[in-house]
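Below is a filled-in request sheet from our internal design queue. Each sheet records the structural input a requester submitted and the sequence that came back. We keep these sheets so that new team members can see what a complete request looks like end to end.

REQUESTER: design group, bay 2
PRIORITY: normal
MODE: inverse folding
CHAIN LENGTH: 79
BACKBONE (tokenized):
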């Protein structure tokens, strides 16, 4: 399952009013929301009228995608 995080402070009315704060992981441990629920919370078609969550890209996917920066002056000093 993809990872999500809260974009705003909100309470999940489908999970006993569990409170999410900005940056909290969604869903909380032990909960497995439906695909429809994730789509609802990711869009503005919910009671808040705005996206409540966003998908978090896997950190491992982004590692190594940038070329390492080389300090040319430090490299010269080593020679």
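RETURNED SEQUENCE:
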């Amino acid at each position: 399952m993809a990872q999500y995080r809260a974009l705003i402070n909100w309470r999940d009315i489908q999970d006993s009013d569990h409170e999410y704060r900005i940056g909290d992981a969604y869903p909380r441990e032990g909960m497995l929301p439906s695909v429809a629920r994730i789509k609802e919370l990711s869009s503005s078609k919910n009671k808040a009228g705005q996206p409540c969550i966003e998908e978090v890209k896997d950190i491992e996917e982004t590692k190594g995608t940038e070329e390492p920066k080389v300090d040319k002056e430090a490299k010269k000093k080593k020679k």
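SHEET NOTES:
- Residues 62 and 68 are 13 Å apart (CA to CA).
- The helical segments are 35-42, 59-62, 72-78.
FILED BY: M.R.
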